[in-house]
Amino acid sequence: MSATSVEDRRLLAESVRAAASGSSPRPLLAEHGAAGTDEALWVTLSQQIGLAGLLAPEDLGGADAGVAEVAAALGELAAQLSPVPALASMGMAGPLLAVTGDGPVRALRARLVEGTPASVAWPHPDGADLTPTLRLEEGMVHGEARFVVDGMAAQVLIAPAAGPDGVVLVALETEAAGVSRTPMTALDITRGLAAVTFDGAPAVTLTAPHPSAEFLRPGLDIALTCLAAEQVGIASRCLDEAVAWAKERVQFDRTIGSFQAIKHTLVDLLQDVELSRSALDIAVAAADAYLEEPTDRTASALNIAASAAKAMCGDAATRVTDETLHIFGGIGFTWEHDAHLYFRRARTLELLLGAPDDHRARLASALGVGR
Known about the structure:
Layout: H1 6-20, H2 39-48, H3 67-79, H4 86-98, H5 104-113, E1 118-120, E2 134-137, E3 140-149, E4 156-163, E5 166-173, E6 179-184, E7 193-202, E8 204-205, H6 217-248, E9 250-251, E10 254-255, H7 260-292, H8 296-328, H9 339-351, H10 356-367
Parallel strand pairs: 1-4, 2-4
Antiparallel strand pairs: 2-3, 3-7, 4-5, 5-8, 6-7, 9-10
Family: Belongs to the acyl-CoA dehydrogenase family.
Domain Acyl-CoA dehydrogenase/oxidase N-terminal: 7-97
Keywords: FAD, Flavoprotein, Oxidoreductase
C-alpha cells in the first residue's frame, strides 16, 4: 500500500464531487420504488477516476491506495446519493478480496479494477455474524441470500459458503444458470436491494477451506468502516443543508437560525457530525494499519475501531437526518424535497450489518467489558 497525503485525499474527494455533481437517484426511481444505476457515472468514476481500483495493487492496474481514500470517495458519493454501486463494489467486495490473499482472488480483483460491479451476499446482513448460510457441493452453490446491496446491478457476487472441508469464499456470476435475483422493497428507495437464490449455481472457489468464517472478519470490519464513511457523508451534507436553510428561511421577520431552539439543535448536530468523523478517522487508520501489517494485534484494533465507528456514525446519521426534516419544516416532509431520501438512506445503513446497539455490545465484548 502506497502512502498518500491529506492533500492527495482532498484532491480525490474534489474529483469525485465534481464528477458526481448533479447526480440524483430520482430519474432512476422505478414505479415500484426500486432504484436504478447511473451506468455512465459509474464508468466515469471507476475507469476514468479509478475509484474501483483504489485498494487493488498496481500490478493489477489499481492505485495501491488505502481505506482512507476509499472512505473519502464513498463519503462524497453518499453526500449526493449518487446512484452507483460504489459501496457494494468498493466498500464491501473490495475489502473482502483484499484480505483473502492471492490465487483466483487476483483475477477477480483485476475485473473489479476494470469497473465490473460486484457485491457481497452477506450470510446475516442484519448483524456481524459470518456463519455461512450457503452450501458448496461439488462446485455448485445452494441457498438464498437476502438484502444484497446493489444485487440487481452486480455482475459478480462473493460470499462465504460451507463446503465439505470447511468454510470458503466463493464468487458467482449473476447471469449464470442457477442464479435467480429478485428486487426487494426497502425503506431506502435510492439504492437497490435484492434477494438472490442459488440453485446449483456454478462457483469459483477463491480461498482454501477454513474451520470457520473468522478469516473474513477483517474484511467485514473494513466494510463496516466504509459504511461509516457513507454515514458521515450523509450527516455532513444534511447538516450543511440545514444550516443554509436556517440562514435563509424567515419566520416572524427573523431568520429561523436566530431562534435559540434552532441554534442549539444545529450545535448539537455539529457535535454529532464531528464526533462521528473522529470515530471514522480512527477506524480508517486501523483498517489501513491492518492491510499494511495483517497480524492478530492489528486485527483486534480494527475490530474494536470498526464497531465503535459503526455505532457512533449510525447514531449520528440518523439523528442529523431526522432533525434536518424538522428544521426544513413542511417542505422537508414533501416528496419533492430530498430530505426524506437522506433519512431513508441513514435508517437503512443504521441497521445494515448490525444496529448501533449490536456494535456497542460487540465493542464491549472485544474490550472484555461486562465479563
